[in-house]
Amino acid sequence: MSLDVDLMVVQPTSVFSKNITHNLGKMANAVILSDGNTLYQILWRPEECGYVLARDISELLDEGFNILLAEPETYRKYNPENGWGNYEGLVDFVYKYRNACWDNPEAELRVSR
Fold it and tell me: Which of 27, 10, 112 lies closest to 78 in space, CA to CA?
């Protein structure tokens, strides 16, 4: 007979980390999604929309990605004048974030503004 004792702690582990300039906020805000929110709200303020997990926003990110791709000139006009960020950068960011959400649907969303 023996006694086994374990003390276990679950540590949060980042499965995706990416940064994007807030200069692209106006561009993201111009993308209106089917849930009534904008891409800006989903990217910068998901908790205010009630979204907590990656699975909550993955389809919305896919929708936003497709909207951006369908009308590039509509969104390029929001390219920041100071050159910090551009349409292509937002498209790339949303694409990679969407894929990470699909790969990790149970991941908790953590956004730092």
Answer: 27
Whole-prediction pTM: 0.91
**Which residue reads 């994007």 in tokens?**
20
Mean pLDDT in the chain? 95
Residues 6-12: contacts with CB within 8 Å, 24+ apart? 12/108
Report the pLDDT value the prediction gives residue 2, as an integer from 0 to 100: 82
Query: Per-residue DSSP letters for 37-104?
Result: -BHHHHHH-GGGGT--BHHHHHHHHHHHHHHHHH-HHHHHTTS-TTSS--HHHHHHHHHHHHHHHHH-
Quote the DSSP letter at residue 23.
G
